[in-house]
């Protein structure tokens, strides 16, 4: 009877160890989801968080990005944002969107390529940028990461904005 009990315990231990070894999925594995909030920039139509007040003019934005990992380390992303400018002369609202991809080199270095645009209330022309960025992902456990990074945005509208805008972002992401 002792041998049977020992064999059963050994089998349970062996199966549980094998199961633990097979769990090689990471935060950036195929089939995982990503929800991201970033700091933003008032010059860009953005899907991040931004608040600025100067000389009676307040600019704000709130938004989120979401993504799905179609393969290990590669997520397709989309984002939406809403913001505006409040001033004595009147208020203007902005709706922003972002479509693109994010690839994690060695599952730690996020590189993004995306198209960001905005629809500004009563504007004759709406801005659009092609952006590329890179940073570093600090994973705080299995579901949270902090991702500071640099980004360059090339304007696709010659008359609307400057040719390019550099920005420093800090992203906060949930992985599940």
What would your notes on this structure say?
This protein has 176 residues and is mainly β. The chain has a single domain (33-175), classed as Porin. 12% of the residues lie in helices and 58% in strands. It has one helix at residues 2-22; strands at residues 33-38, 50-54, 57-71, 74-87, 90-105, 109-120, 128-135, 138-139, 144-155, 164-175. An eight-stranded antiparallel barrel has the order 1-3-4-5-6-7-9-10. Strand 3 and strand 4 form a beta hairpin. It is elongated. Mean pLDDT is 83; it is low at 1-23.
Q: Could you outline the blueprint of secondary structure elements for this entry?
A:
Blueprint: H1 2-22, E1 33-38, E2 50-54, E3 57-71, E4 74-87, E5 90-105, E6 109-120, E7 128-135, E8 138-139, E9 144-155, E10 164-175
Antiparallel strand pairs: 1-3, 1-10, 2-3, 3-4, 4-5, 5-6, 6-7, 7-9, 8-9, 9-10
Features:
disordered N terminus, 10 strands, Porin
Spatially, the strands of the biggest sheet line up as 1-3-4-5-6-7-9-10
The number of distinct structural domains comes to 1
Q: Number of helical segments? A: 1
Could you state the order of secondary-structure elements as H and E? Answer: HEEEEEEEEEE
What is the name of the CATH architecture?
A: Beta Barrel
Amino-to-carboxy terminus distance: 45 Å
Total strands: 10
Shape: elongated
- CATH class placement: Mainly Beta
Classify the fold: give the CATH topology.
Porin
Biggest sheet record: 8 strands, antiparallel, barrel
Helix content: 10-25%
Radius of gyration: 22 Å
User: pLDDT below 50 for ≥5 consecutive residues: which ranges?
Assistant: 1-23
Q: Which band does the percent of strand residues land in?
A: over 45%
Which structural class best describes the helix and strand composition?
mainly beta
